[in-house]
Amino acid sequence: FLGVMPAYSAADDALTTKLVTFYEHKKDSSVPSHQATVLLFDPRNGSLKAVLDGSVITAKRTAAVSAIATKLLMPAFAEVLCILGAGVQAYSHYDIFTELFTFKEVRIWNRTKEKAVKFANSVNGPVQVCSSAQEAVTGADVIITVTMATTPILFGDWVKPGAHINAVGASRPDWRELDDELMKNSVLFVDSREAALTESGDVILSGAEIFAELGEVVKGTKPALPEKTTVFKSLGMAVEDTVAAKFVYDSWSAGN
């Protein structure tokens, strides 16, 4: 797939387009499934100001949004973090989640165990490599799914009541990471209703009702409900890339 994600933020005085290629690698590859470039334009006249590495921006902004959702939606006493998947997004999520939150235990599972072991040996803290997704998920307070799964790998009867799930993979209308039971018995938050109802197989195929957009919770117009089992379905929004790219560009400019 080749995605084109244009956005303009008046508040940030920023105009960008992200070009992202997405290849479903049939075998484990040294090349990431998603590769991206962000073009930053001058909103006053349309001239190109910068070309930025969109892969780094995508990894960091996606994890940052998941962290915001988790700060708002996770249970009051969250001790166990579980990550399903061991790709680029697993690393970026691990970095920000261990920086912002204090977990007593971090677990990881990946379809190919070698990648999970490599992950555990690469990061800066102790990570328990689990032999099954169910083992990783059981008793976890916060769960992050960052896989290339096309059918469910996370099931509702495994999930601890009151847990919070960040569902980041399965970005196509016919792909799933979460089963119907989990989708229907959780309070569902999304980044964009419009996107979720056209792009997310987890939302479309389960028929789950969207409770709120994350922005509504941030603004205080919808409650967070951290005492409930919650799912944040993340698809990513172009404006997130715009704000992140402008932040990077301004930081670089200030250094000149």
UniProtKB/TrEMBL annotation:
GO cellular component: cytoplasm
The EC number(s) this enzyme carries: 1.5.1.1, 1.5.1.25
Matches recorded under InterPro entries: NAD(P)-bd_dom_sf (IPR036291), ODC_Mu_crystall (IPR003462), ODC_N (IPR023401)
One term of GO molecular function: thyroid hormone binding
Catalytic activity: L-pipecolate + NADP(+) = Delta(1)-piperideine-2-carboxylate + NADPH + H(+); (R)-lanthionine ketimine + NADPH + 2 H(+) = (3R,5R)-1,4-thiomorpholine-3,5-dicarboxylate + NADP(+); (S)-cystathionine ketimine + NADH + 2 H(+) = (3R,5S)-2,3,5,6,7-pentahydro-1,4-thiazepine-3,5-dicarboxylate + NAD(+); (S)-cystathionine ketimine + NADPH + 2 H(+) = (3R,5S)-2,3,5,6,7-pentahydro-1,4-thiazepine-3,5-dicarboxylate + NADP(+)
GO process annotations (BP): thyroid hormone metabolic process
Family note: Belongs to the ornithine cyclodeaminase/mu-crystallin family.
Subunit field text: Homodimer. Binds the thyroid hormone triiodothyronine (T3); T3 binding inhibits enzymatic activity.
Protein name, UniProt field: Ketimine reductase mu-crystallin
Organism of derivation: Scopus umbretta
Gene for this chain: Crym
